[in-house]
Write a structure and sequence with these properties.
By secondary structure, the chain is mostly beta strands. The chain has no helices and nine strands. A five-stranded antiparallel sheet has the order 1-9-4-3-2, with no helix packed on it. A four-stranded antiparallel sheet has the order 5-8-7-6, with no helix packed on it. Strand 7 and strand 8 form a beta hairpin. It is globular.
Length: about 130
Amino acid sequence: MLDTRFENLLGKTFKSVVGEVGGDDIKFTTLDGEEYILFHDQDCCEYVRVEDITGDLDDLVGAPIVQAEKVVNGDKKGETGPAPKYQGDSFTWTFYKLGTSKGRVTIRWYGSSNGYYGESVSFYKVKP
């Protein structure tokens, strides 16, 4: 797998987008056969999952991506987000915003931990 920037999806056209609320990954496959994945590698004393998907993932299929943005909103800098469902010593919201001419989708991840473990979401190119 190759670590890559989420913004690299701009201009790509997806053949499929697979994932669900409560899941631990979202998989993207382009018409060119490239594969990408959003995921968190779980460790002890942490919880990171897809908390919400606003919009229809099918709107991301068959039209070029015109918006690909990552926004992180966590407690570490005194920022606020939706009230945490699962309390921990530390939490992070990560929002992935995607759009095409067919519609917009926001994938919201929630991570919490005891403060010693990571809450971030990784984005990788799986297959060139």
